[in-house]
Amino acid sequence: MKELLRTIVESLVTKPEAIEIGETAGETITIFELRVAEEDRGRVIGKQGNTARSIRTILNAVATRNSRKVTLQIVE
Fold first, then answer.
1. Rounded Cα distance, 54 and 75, in Å
2. For position 64, what pLDDT does the model report?
3. Fewer Cβ close by (within 10 Å): the C or N end of the chain?
4. Cα dist. 69→17, 24, 29 in Å?
5. pTM to 2 decimals?
6. What CATH number was assigned to the domain covering residues 2-74?
């Protein structure tokens, strides 16, 4: 799932080398912490958070198939 997140975010940002993804996995939930370059943060979040919401929807769809839950946090 981490690779899926990286692929999605790389297509959105102008500095893909600045992408950092932290992963904390529990028994039923996985928390992803996403860091991107400051100038790319707006691209990842999108207008009114629509892009971030869409990314979360895709991750949750994949996680549901594996009987897990996923949380995505975009950190500064």
1. 17
2. 93
3. C
4. 27, 12, 5
5. 0.90
6. 3.30.300.20
